[in-house]
């Protein structure tokens, strides 16, 4: 299996080379040259542990990794860092099935991929004779940063620099990042929003002179964002595992479809479900749930992608995104893998902030359905799910829950299939919003005290990740303007 760029100019690479490269030199994203099929039927995986299912799903994508290498990466990733042997358990509540993706070290779904990416990358470097130090350069809207730093902390031969919008993440998310251990880690607060951070990182990847200067210092850039195919492939595995668990629990019979709703900002998480469907997993509809930054909702309803709109800060900050980078991979597929059509639209997006797909392309989006949730609906849904099912969800998961409920109300016949909702973060990560939604009096309390109060009222367990942050000292205090990102990287690397 080789990987090609969505923009069609960069040469094809093996899986390990694509993982090392991150973003293609032509600005495109690497995609498999064809979709593999599941190596066995889901019913044949009943009873297998998560690690074995992940190995079977990922192997056809990562064909230049030996089985021993891949199993080693998986075993080192999905171990005691997760607080449940199930790794990604299901919770059937209130007519929906929540896929809990937040049982890792940083209590957010990014752990599912970022626990394994460092091992895939270090193995890839060894396989390809790379002796340069690998510098992970990444932007975060809140969760990727901490999960990436936790994954790469003190991994030999690597460094990691994370940029985040200093006023665009929760207080707890910021504290998680700024207390991160590891001599090879750095985090920088940017005076801008996530899209500014993402654009700044992409510019550095595309700056040939800067990359050459970095290379002379024995360093090469790579990415831990979901633009890296090494992030996307591990995410495919948890949708397959979820289907297998539904079979085990009798909520599905072999071959019957499940529907999937994903709270969506950068589009990688729902794209992984689409990839699972393309592999042959019986998925019916893919509901893309947006918060008030509803650029994707509008895209699926109109066929026009328009980022020219006010940027809204919401209680689901990891979804406060107007440039959904991974959508480019879907555009490539619905354009019939026509790289010229992708280049044209990405150039339009860069120049004007808008592009439109053709009717023929739109027809290939029949499996997708866009929904959106207002701030009022999000808070109301957190309260409703707790009142009716005794289950506490965070604001991002609530966006997905609202989207799933709206979809099922519009298409009641779809209720025959289980509706899987990706639960992307622990409610402890967004205690202020959850306390407000559940009318828990937490006025004047800091984030950690709010978590304690929320746990006291609802009875939820406080994850170990919270206890870690409680006593950890602040280790990172860098801030910069958007236009200073490159100089900041140069300073951190000692150039």
**Biggest β-sheet description:** 6 strands, mixed
Separation, N- and C-terminal Cα atoms: 37 Å
- Give the overall silhouette: globular
Total beta strand runs: 16
Task: Describe this entry's structure for a reader.
- The protein is an alpha/beta fold and 495 residues long.
- It has a domain at 90-108 and 230-463: 3-Layer(aba) Sandwich (Rossmann fold), CATH 3.40.50.1100.
- The chain is 43% helix and 16% strand.
- The protein is built from 21 helices and 16 strands.
- The chain has helices at residues 15-21, 50-58, 67-77, 111-114, 117-127, 143-152, 171-178, 194-206, 208-216, 229-248, 268-278, 295-302, 327-334, 339-352, 359-363, 375-389, 395-410, 431-437, 447-458, 464-471, 485-493; strands spanning 2-5, 13-14, 30-32, 90-93, 96-100, 133-139, 158-165, 185-191, 219-222, 258-263, 283-290, 304-306, 354-356, 368-372, 419-423, 478-481.
- Strands 4-5-15-10-11-14 form a six-stranded mixed beta sheet. Strands 9-6-7-8-16 form a five-stranded parallel beta sheet, with helices on both faces. A three-stranded antiparallel beta sheet has the order 2-1-3.
- Helix 11 (268-278) links the parallel strand 10 and strand 11 (283-290).
- It is globular.
Feature tags:
alpha/beta, single chain, 6-stranded mixed β-sheet, 5-stranded parallel β-sheet
């Amino acid at each position: 299996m080789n990987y090609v760029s969505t923009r069609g100019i960069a040469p094809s690479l093996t899986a390990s080379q694509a993982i090392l490269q991150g973003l293609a030199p032509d600005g495109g994203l690497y995609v498999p040259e064809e979709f593999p099929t599941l190596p066995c039927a889901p019913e044949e995986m009943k009873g297998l542990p998560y690690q074995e299912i992940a190995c079977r799903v990922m192997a056809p994508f990562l064909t230049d990794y030996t089985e021993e290498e891949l199993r080693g990466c998986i075993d080192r990733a999905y171990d005691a860092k997760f607080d449940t042997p199930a790794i990604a358990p299901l919770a059937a509540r209130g007519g929906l099935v929540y896929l809990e993706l937040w049982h890792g070290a940083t209590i957010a779904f990014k752990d599912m991929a970022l626990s394994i990416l460092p091992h895939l990358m270090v193995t890839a470097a060894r396989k390809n004779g790379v002796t340069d130090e690998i510098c992970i350069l990444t932007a975060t809207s809140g969760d990727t940063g901490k999960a990436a730093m936790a994954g790469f902390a003190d991994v030999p031969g690597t460094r990691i620099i994370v940029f985040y919008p200093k006023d665009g993440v929760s207080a707890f998310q910021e504290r998680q990042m700024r207390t991160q251990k590891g001599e090879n880690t750095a985090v920088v607060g940017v005076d801008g929003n996530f899209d500014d951070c993402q654009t700044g990182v992409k510019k550095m990847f595309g700056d040939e002179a800067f990359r050459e200067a970095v290379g002379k210092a024995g360093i090469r850039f790579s990415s831990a964002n979901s633009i890296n195919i090494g992030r996307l492939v591990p995410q495919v595995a948890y949708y397959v595992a979820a289907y297998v668990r539904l079979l085990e629990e009798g909520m599905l019979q072999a071959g019957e479809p499940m529907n999937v709703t994903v709270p969506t900002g950068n589009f990688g998480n729902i794209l992984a479900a689409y990839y699972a469907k393309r592999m042959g997993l019986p998925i019916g509809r893919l509901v893309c749930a947006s918060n008030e930054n509803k650029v994707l909702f509008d895209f699926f309803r109109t066929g026009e992608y328009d980022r020219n709109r006010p940027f809204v800060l919401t209680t689901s900050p990891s979804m406060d995104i107007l440039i959904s980078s991974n959508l480019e991979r879907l555009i490539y597929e619905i354009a019939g893998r026509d790289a010229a059509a992708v280049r044209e639209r990405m150039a339009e997006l860069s120049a004007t902030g808008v592009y439109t797909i053709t009717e023929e392309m739109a027809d290939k989006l029949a499996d997708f359905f866009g929904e959106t949730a207002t701030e009022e609906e999000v808070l109301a849904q957190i309260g409703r799910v707790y009142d009716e099912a005794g289950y506490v969800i965070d604001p991002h998961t609530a966006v997905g829950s609202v989207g799933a409920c709206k979809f099922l109300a519009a298409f009641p016949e779809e209720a025959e299939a289980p509706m899987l909702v990706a639960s992307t973060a622990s409610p402890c990560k967004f205690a202020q919003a959850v306390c407000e939604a559940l009318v828990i009096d937490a006025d004047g309390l800091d984030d950690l005290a709010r978590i304690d109060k929320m746990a006291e009222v609802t009875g939820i367990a406080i994850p170990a990740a919270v206890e870690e942050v409680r006593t950890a000292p602040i280790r990172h205090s860098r801030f910069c303007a958007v236009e200073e990102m490159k100089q900041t990287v140069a300073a951190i690397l000692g150039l």
